[in-house]
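Suppose a colleague, Dr. K., hands you the sequence of a protein chain of 222 amino acids and asks what its three-dimensional shape might be. Before reaching for any lab equipment, you can write down a predicted structure in token form. Begin with the sequence itself:
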Amino acid sequence: MYQLSPSILSADFAILGEQLKKVEEAGADMIHIDVMDGQFVPRISYGMPVIESIRKVTALPFDVHLMVAEPFRFIEDFRECGADMLTVHAEACTHLHSAITKIKRLGMRAGVALNPATPVEFLRHVIGEVDMVLIMTVNPGFGGQKFINEMLKKPKRVMELAGEEGYPCPDIQVDGGITLSNIREVLAAGANNIVAGTSVFSGDIRANIAGFQEAFSQVSPA
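The predicted structure, expressed as tokens, is then:
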């Protein structure tokens, strides 16, 4: 089953609550929340107070993507403000296994994100612990980038790696430059969880989500 996780990084924060209600009513599956610290990536976005405030607006699960240095420090804080899934970057964790274990111990689903230059092989010794692998199809924290087509090889490699280690494949999320023009190609490559920002929040939110849902119905899961 495919899932759509609209990224509020592209929402209009002047009417964020209203847009979140539209997203939920239109049938989105979760809300993707990008947290940037200005260290791991060059931009700063938002943190716990914003997440806590919008938790009151929607019942959708919060899919929180931590683009921060040493995210282990903040795991409890994000659980307390309403995160349902917490994704950390493999490149940002000194002790990745410990971070995954703590996330799950606190009752959240655990995801691990890979930057474009990071090979899937990095996950070999934690693939049985993660609930989701997030494949970045742009370099995080930099605006105006094109979708990196080479990254479409990674979902298949995640499936292979899980099989080699004797585990079921985790969910495979893809984030960065996803549009209605390339979504079918992304799904065919093996992704089952799609992050979309501008393609959801620019223009008619309901119509945009309906477009993704139509694409979901036309591609058989890998």
